Amino acid sequence: MKSWASYWALGLLFREIGDAASQDRSKELAAKVAAVVCDQAQDGVLPAIFEKSNPGYSSRILPAVEGCVYPLYLVNTGFAGCTLDEIYATPSENRMFEVLREHTRNLLLDPDRRNLFADGGIKLSSTSNNSWMSKIAIFMHVTRRVFHLDADPKIAEVFRQADAAHVKWQTEGSSYWACCDQIVSGEGKASRYYPRIITSALWME
Questions:
Q1: Residues 183 and 132: beta-carbon distance below 8 Å
Q2: What phi and psi values does residue 180 have, to the nearest 5 degrees?
Q3: Cβ within 8 Å of residue 111, ≥6 positions away
Q4: HSE of 86 in the Cβ direction (CA atoms, 13 Å)?
């Protein structure tokens, strides 16, 4: 997903210097990446790693969508010169949008709660108790502002509980250090005062 976003950004940079051929090539490559992502979906979710022989293939991760924050930023700043709908307008990218949206919805509403901790906090990976607040913040921002999944009352409730849990992670679990990025099962463990956790404020509106 970050490769897809990078090709999109490169296309805009080539546009700025008047290199139309490279801009078109960047768009073509972005569309190809989108098609590859779509082809990996099975039963409404994407594997964390696409190689079937890799143990990570069985993991399901919410940060699969975080690359979508870049085009959102480029649209909101006006640099993209188009709407978010136009960015996802090509057949492969429109399909990718729907695949990512469905992936996110299925993981958040998983009956077995494999991507949620016991306190309701966001568990980035279905197979790891290690989560990062900075990545959670980006994931939730994309889910709200790109996919608008919080319009679903069920997901709005999941996020309400998650927000409350995340506050406790910082004010109680990480209170000795003021803040932590690395959270293990709801307790601050490392990356204290980490620059990336500070940038989470960028997504607060």
A1: yes
A2: -135, 145
A3: none
A4: 6
Distance CA 138, CA 122 (A): 12
Q: In what order do the strands lie in the sheet with 180-184?
A: 130-132, 180-184, 187-192
Instruction: Report the C-alpha gap between 92 and 99 in whole angstroms.
Output: 10
Indicate if the alpha-carbon torsion angle 157, 146, 55, 169 is positive or negative: negative
Q: What is the pLDDT of residues 132-182, one digit of tens each?
A: 999 999 999 999 999 999 999 999 999 999 999 998 888 887 777 778 888
pTM of the model: 0.91
Q: Which amino acid is at 75?
A: V
Strands (E), 12-156: 130-132
